């Protein structure tokens, strides 16, 4: 697609909250974008031909739905903008709610094989356990994926007590603006992409005085 298609696609996405359909005429879209009806109509036809939208012509206008291809185009633009601005800010902030885990994090964080690497790479010995944070906002989920672009502290894979362990990427972070910690992303994990694990030298639930379902803000150094 052309760069000129971004503005009409973004406008449609905002009106339909990305996932919904939008009822709008070419005339009204043109007025909103500051272009002629003919230009707006041409842009819509081009977006449709590129597979970015699906249109259903109805009386007085049309119903427009953004396709997965169109959403991915917007996501790519979003990630590029985040990368541009985060080069200056050197931090990335995501919000999520605390959820209970199955206790697996405590076992892995406590392994001598990992513990020494945490101390060397992050500068602290982690409390035996991880805080699981569920991301529900689509922007926060995208930012979590965006994190993969940045360099991290790498915990190497290997064996310990007869078991094999995969490598882990770590990103130093500040939890709720006051507690030092790190986001850890194991190569092997049972968590879905919208769940992140946090470690800290402190018991985070006790220190933050928070429980399951409460909001936590993670500011990550990038």
UniProtKB/TrEMBL annotation:
Q: Which residues bind CDP?
A: 101-106, 202-205
Annotated GO MF terms: magnesium ion binding; nucleotide binding; riboflavin kinase activity
The alphabetical list of record keywords is: Flavoprotein, FMN, Kinase, Magnesium, Metal-binding, Nucleotide-binding, Transferase
What region holds the Riboflavin kinase domain? 98-220
User: Which positions are annotated as binding FMN?
Assistant: 189, 197
Substrates-to-products reaction catalysed? riboflavin + CTP = CDP + FMN + H(+)
Enzyme Commission code: 2.7.1.161
The biological process GO terms on file are: FMN biosynthetic process; riboflavin biosynthetic process
* Residues holding Mg(2+): 130, 132
Pathway participation: Cofactor biosynthesis; FMN biosynthesis; FMN from riboflavin (CTP route): step 1/1
Which InterPro entries has this protein been placed in? RibK_CTP-dep, Riboflavin_kinase_archaeal, Riboflavin_kinase_CTP-dep, Riboflavin_kinase_dom_sf, WH-like_DNA-bd_sf, WH_DNA-bd_sf
Q: What does it do?
A: Catalyzes the CTP-dependent phosphorylation of riboflavin (vitamin B2) to form flavin mononucleotide (FMN).
Q: Which PANTHER family match?
A: RIBOFLAVIN KINASE
Task: Name the family the entry cites.
Answer: Belongs to the archaeal riboflavin kinase family.
Under which name does UniProt file this protein? Riboflavin kinase
Q: Which organism is it from?
A: Candidatus Methanofastidiosum methylothiophilum
């Amino acid at each position: 697609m052309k760069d000129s298609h971004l503005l009409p696609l973004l406008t449609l996405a905002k009106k339909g909250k990305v996932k919904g359909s939008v009822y709008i005429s070419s005339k009204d879209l043109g007025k909103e974008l500051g272009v002629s009806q003919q230009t707006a109509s041409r842009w819509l036809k081009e977006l449709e031909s590129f597979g970015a939208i699906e249109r259903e012509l109805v009386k007085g206008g049309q119903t427009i739905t953004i396709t997965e291809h169109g959403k991915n185009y917007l996501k790519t633009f979003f990630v590029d903008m985040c990368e541009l601005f985060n080069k200056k800010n050197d931090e990335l902030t995501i919000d999520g709610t605390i959820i209970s885990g199955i206790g697996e994090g405590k076992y892995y964080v406590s392994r001598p094989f990992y513990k020494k690497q945490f101390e060397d790479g992050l500068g602290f010995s982690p409390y035996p356990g991880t805080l699981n944070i569920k991301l529900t906002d689509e922007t926060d989920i995208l930012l979590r994926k965006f994190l993969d672009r940045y360099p991290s502290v790498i915990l190497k894979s290997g064996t310990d007590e007869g078991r094999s362990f995969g490598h882990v990427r770590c990103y130093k972070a500040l939890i709720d603006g006051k507690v030092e910690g790190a986001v850890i992303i194991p190569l092997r994990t049972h968590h879905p992409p919208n769940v992140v694990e946090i470690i800290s030298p402190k018991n985070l639930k006790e220190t933050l005085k928070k429980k399951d379902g409460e909001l936590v803000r993670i500011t990550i150094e990038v």
